[in-house]
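Lab notebook, bench 4. We co-purified these components, and the gel suggests they stay together. Before we commit to crystallization screens, I want a quick structural picture of the whole thing.
Request: model the full complex, all chains together.
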Amino acid sequence: MANALRGEGRFLRVVPINDKGELILEEYEKLLSPKTRLVAVNHVSNALGTVNPIRKIIELAHQQGIPVLVDGAQAIPHTRVDVRELDCDFYAFSGHKVYGPTGIGVLYGKAALLESMPPFQGGGDMISSVTFEKTTYNKIPYKFEAGTPNIAGVIGLGAAIDYLKSIDIEAVAFYEHGLLEYATDAISAVPGVRLIGTAREKAAVVSFVLDGVHPHDVGTILDQEGIAIRAGHHCAQPVMDRFGVPATVRASLALYNTREEIDTLASGLHKVSEVFH
Amino acid sequence: MSDLRDLYQEVILDHTKRPRNFRKLAGANRSAKGHNPLCGDRVTVYLNVEGGVVQDISFEGSGCAISTASASMMTESLRGKTQAEAEALFERFHGLVTGKPDESPETPELGKLEAFSGVREYPVRIKCATLAWHTLRAALENKETPVSTE
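Here is the predicted assembly.
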């Protein structure tokens, strides 16, 4: 993002987080100014699990006429999202986080904003008429959908969304919250564990480090126990720097996980400690 | 499923906990940096090469157990080797960790480095084991751009 903005007289200003991994709203307010063109925020942090107060963030930005883009990839499968009620200007999420295919996603935008934006890509379907003098762009959303689309991906994503709509998302959120509490207790009980991301409002993500053992080694050993976690910086290196770790182990829990699996994860962590000590 | 002890052998764990030659090398005349951006492993290999022979070698960096132990054991195995011997060792080590899991590794003259034979069972960890070695090769060639095994 910083690179995309560079050289155009545009800057990236970053809202700091506290030791729990929560955005510091007072600092956010101070960063907003008449020069602010866009506020971009994730609904839920992929690295820490923090649920950001996006209503408040949107409200504060809108008081100064600033549009807000919300990355909801981590939120959509776990909570009810109503973009009109939130009044966000853009909301994005990806297919693979809603149990759908990779390489496909959704960008919601308010019609007036989308209509005012030029196409970012050229190709079939995005124009309505072309002469050498003038090209008239197609209406939204076609204006942004140049070329042959990812048809199979669209159909797969549609099926995934149908599935999500067929289940009671409030019940999912309740169940996942129970898993989160259970996992937080089980994982923090392992000697040498330090949780990274302890926000009051969290989605079912437990990110942590184990003293003296690199997350990739933890990942390999847990894999042998049949537990798939993510080890690494989660494409969030500045967050890793903020907490002074090169990487974390991250267990992302979802509606299909069970408490028994969390028990296996915890006993796997004891096994990691046995191997390394 | 293979035994974890095949991957995390005692000698590997020992080098992970107490890496040898883990320092900046005063008087190094060659060095190179290695970085695996996806996993975050970083290593710098320092060499002092005189008359085509690796007189001294050290490393610095941070990474997982496999990458740290690999760098540490590499430094131990290379001191006193000629540049050609170092290249040959690179090839043999590479063959050891990237071989097919079901074939028993042929590892002439690898000595202690044979401890890494378990890595071939874990394809995602191969890049951890080879990062220091690719960085070594870059240092021998005095390459300025950082190397990566991703």
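The longest helix of chain B spans residues 83-98. Worth comparing against the SEC data before the next meeting. The beta strands of chain B are 30-36, 41-50, 53-62.
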